[in-house]
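haha ok so turns out i had the wrong file open the whole time. this is the CORRECT one, sorry everyone. sequence first:
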Amino acid sequence: MSKSEDEAKTEIPLTIPAYGKLVFPDQNYYEIDNAKRFVGRADLKKYTNRDPNHIARFQFIIYKKGENFFLDHSHMDGTAPLQLENGQVIRVSDVEMKFEV
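then structure:
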């Protein structure tokens, strides 16, 4: 086998991100790993221009499961957890956050 054939057969392992980030409007962020993180009024009240009482104490849960990241707000509306993608915007009331890997 020639060297180029050996190189062609070499597989590059995919890197699984150790954590993601939930980035707030002021660029502060929470690291998201295998532990579940509850996000709600206490986290978001300093970013809203509206009455913070319209944000639930526990608005959503964000977590990593396997290689993927999820946002779960099923306790609010009964929907299935949403798989997050890099760069996805998450909006609660008038607060926009961004998910990054």
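The mean pLDDT is 90.
again sry for the mixup
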